[in-house]
Specification:
This protein has about 675 residues and is of the alpha+beta class. It has 14 helices and 26 strands. It folds into 2 domains: about 25-60 and about 80-475, no CATH class; about 480-650, Regulator of chromosome condensation 1/beta-lactamase-inhibitor protein II (Methylamine Dehydrogenase, Chain H, 7 Propeller). The strands form 8 sheets. Strands 1, 4, 5, 6, 9, 10, 11 and 12 form an 8-stranded antiparallel sheet that branches. It has a 3-stranded antiparallel sheet with strand order 15-16-17, with no helix packed on it. The chain has a 3-stranded antiparallel sheet with strand order 18-19-20, with no helix packed on it.
Length: about 675
């Protein structure tokens, strides 16, 4: 369900408000700043047809070796990989936990709470605003009035907020913009739990957390999903909940919550419906907005990559003048659209079937798109083109490129495959090149109510998305990552000398390789030897005398001087981050519980019990942990910060360093600069 849209090269760029559904009150909303930095088409608000990471990947691979397939041939490995899809039908998924953590009510609440609405509305009212749009019989895009089917039975649906369950979560990092403007889309698909079939897909376009780095700024997002791919279903679900609803910190980078009003509004992502209550099956698209009364609503938007079917037909006696004019403009622009559809053949002389299937797009201008796409194979199937002008344009292009064996029908099948109805039904097994057929869906969906995936996903789309994710990660990952001494985040100053969440090691180095293995050197009593073997480590932390490394599954390995954190690390998994004083560590678990070890005078004992803690701060000799309710618990040396923590009613702001210190360099692990080995203090 909903997985061919923007597959693989087509993705809406950011745009200014779309007049299709714009209302004057919307000017109060603070949109993503990047939403304005685009080129705008002149009709219907326009749409930027941007280049994405799938484009980059296929171009790079075919340029390097035109005779080899860019997409790997292995298939089965992608079916149960959390990094690409988390679906209720996968082995090891606790469906009850999935339903609770990703309830539709929770998603709608996040959207309402992150909006700039001035009038309160309920989840039911928000969802009902979407259903009401299904009872409209026409809308205008550009200057063309487009007819819509009124779907009364779906408009009358009630109780959906508590009667829809999550089917799957999809990672669409492959849709990230080549220029780093955003980091792809992250989608949650819901299905109606009883009666006639009804699906909703919430497709958040994710902002670049480090935009100054360009597309390299998306690395923390890619790395988060890479790690999700190698952890258990239970831990993956816990981390995904944070990513979608609360946001989280990943390797020093703050990742905002994916489910946010601004990630579904004009110029960003979208919400789509796949409805079966009325006949025929139909897919529509929506944006978040604020109505004239100041309430959050969903408004109908054009369905992208779905040109009006009448544009592919010959002129009719009853056609309006605006439709006749639009058909002329469409034929004028169609030559460029054919180039997009033939991109694989323009990249390589003999592209593989996978490179073809994942390598073309339509990228039609938005003012040609209609507001519905359905399974009517006669009236809403662009492959059944009757417009002789378009056929002539296609045949001329095929002759120009010397593509013998190709036909106009194959190219029109490609155009239909880029539409919602085509990818979900009409194009299944349609021939798109000599000996190449479009992959099959699963009867109008790509993931069903049980979480089962279509063969199109498992055989084609998931392997391609995986290849893009792996390629980006390998090219962008730092070759070495030293022990974390992060001076740039918010830090407290409870009377201590050091404002770092992790104390620098005083006599050794430890660094991660890109494969997750660790190399250490320096004085053995400081951890310069005895680094753990194996791979899969994601972060290294330090006290003055020891190191602790966090693995993908959240387990911890420590080494160095025994009494100062080199031994006593907690067993088990699920830890998300480690903090340190000069002689002790404290680790925060996914459930908000804390374990500490090392010198008891420096916070190695006395950590609070219970859960619900969100972050730990440290000075040289004490820790302070912040709970979700705003309360603070401190432990370590009493006269250096463990005593006197304020009550919840008067919480001080943690002191932020005015200027971040320069990044860690091999010759400067200590804040005091390069010093002789042994204990020393900054002056």
């Amino acid at each position: 369900m909903f997985n061919c849209y923007n597959q693989s090269n087509y993705l809406s760029g950011f745009k200014i408000m779309n007049p299709i559904s714009f209302n004057p009150n919307f000017g109060r909303i603070l949109l993503l700043s990047t939403a304005l930095i685009v080129s705008i088409n002149t009709i219907a608000g326009g749409r930027s047809s941007e280049r994405n990471l799938m484009d980059d990947y296929l171009q790079d691979k075919t340029s390097a070796n035109p005779n080899a397939s860019a997409i790997p041939l292995q298939r089965s490995a992608f079916i149960n990989n959390n990094a690409l899809v988390f679906n209720r039908g996968a082995t090891g998924v606790n469906k009850n936990d999935f339903d609770k953590k990703f309830s539709l009510a929770k998603t709608l609440t996040n959207i309402r709470n992150t909006s700039d609405a001035t009038t309160h509305s309920s989840n039911a009212q928000l969802l009902n605003s979407l259903l009401k749009t299904l009872n409209v019989d026409s809308k205008i895009n550009g200057f063309v009035k487009m007819n819509l089917q009124k779907r009364a039975q779906e408009t009358a649906l009630s109780g959906l907020v508590n009667n829809m369950l999550p089917s799957a979560i999809f990672n669409r990092f492959d849709l990230s913009a080549s220029n780093g403007q955003h980091c792809g889309e992250y989608r949650v698909v819901y299905h109606k739990n009883n009666g006639n079939r009804f699906f909703l897909s919430f497709e958040a376009k994710y902002p670049n957390p480090e935009p100054k780095k360009g597309k390299a700024g998306c690395f923390a997002v890619a790395d988060f999903w890479k790690e999700i791919g190698s952890t258990s279903k239970t831990n993956a679900l816990a981390q995904l909940e944070k990513f979608f609803y609360q946001g989280l910190e990943h390797k020093g980078v703050q990742l905002p919550a994916a489910i946010n009003f601004t990630h579904y509004t004009h110029g960003t992502g979208q919400v789509r419906s796949n409805t079966f209550v009325n006949s025929p099956w139909q897919l529509r698209e929506f944006k978040t907005d604020i109505d004239a009364d100041g309430k959050v609503v969903f408004v109908a938007d054009s369905v992208k990559s779905n040109p009006l079917a009448e544009l592919f037909a010959d002129e009719g006696n009853l056609d309006s003048n605006s439709l006749k004019a639009s058909r002329i403009y469409f034929a004028r622009d169609f030559d460029g659209y054919i180039d997009n559809l033939l991109t694989p053949e323009k990249r390589a002389t003999s592209p593989s079937s996978s490179d073809i299937i994942n390598g073309f797009s339509l990228k039609d201008d938005n003012h040609y798109n209609e507001f519905q796409s359905d399974s009517n194979t006669t009236n809403d199937n662009t492959a059944k083109v009757t417009n002789s002008n378009l056929k002539t344009i296609i045949n001329n292009k095929l002759a120009e490129l010397n593509l013998s064996g190709y036909s106009a029908k194959m190219i029109m099948n490609r155009a239909e495959a880029m539409s919602c109805s085509g990818c979900h039904q009409n194009s299944s097994d349609a021939k798109i090149a000599p000996n190449v057929n479009w992959p099959k869906s699963q009867s109008f969906v790509h993931v069903n109510e049980q979480g089962a995936l279509s063969s199109a996903l498992t055989e084609q789309f998931l392997p391609a998305r995986s290849a893009v994710l792996v390629d980006y990660w390998q090219k962008t990952a730092e070759k070495w990552r030293f022990a974390e001494v992060n001076f740039s985040s918010a830090n407290n100053n409870f009377g201590g000398r050091y404002n770092a969440p992790n104390h620098p090691n005083g006599g050794a180095f430890a660094a991660l390789k890109t494969d997750g293995s660790i190399t250490a050197w320096g004085a053995s009593q400081y951890g310069g030897t005895s680094a753990p073997f194996g791979s899969g480590y994601t972060m290294i932390y330090s006290t003055e005398y020891a190191f602790a490394a966090l693995k993908t599954d959240g387990s911890i390995t420590a080494w160095g001087r025994s009494g100062y954190g080199g031994s006593g690390a907690p067993s088990g998994s699920g830890y998300t981050k480690i903090y340190s004083t000069s002689r002790a560590f404290a680790a925060l678990k996914a459930d908000g519980s804390i374990k500490a070890w090392g010198d008891s005078d420096y916070g190695g004992s006395g950590a609070p019990s219970g859960s619900g803690y969100t972050k730990i701060y440290s000075n040289e000799t004490a820790f302070a942990a912040l709970q979700a309710d705003g309360s603070i618990t401190a432990w370590g040396r009493p006269y250096q910060g463990s005593a006197g923590a304020p009550p919840m009613v008067s919480i001080p702001r943690f002191i932020q360093l005015r200027e971040p210190l320069p990044p860690l360099k091999p010759m400067a692990q200590s804040r005091c600069g390069v010093k002789r080995l042994g204990r020393h203090r900054c002056t």
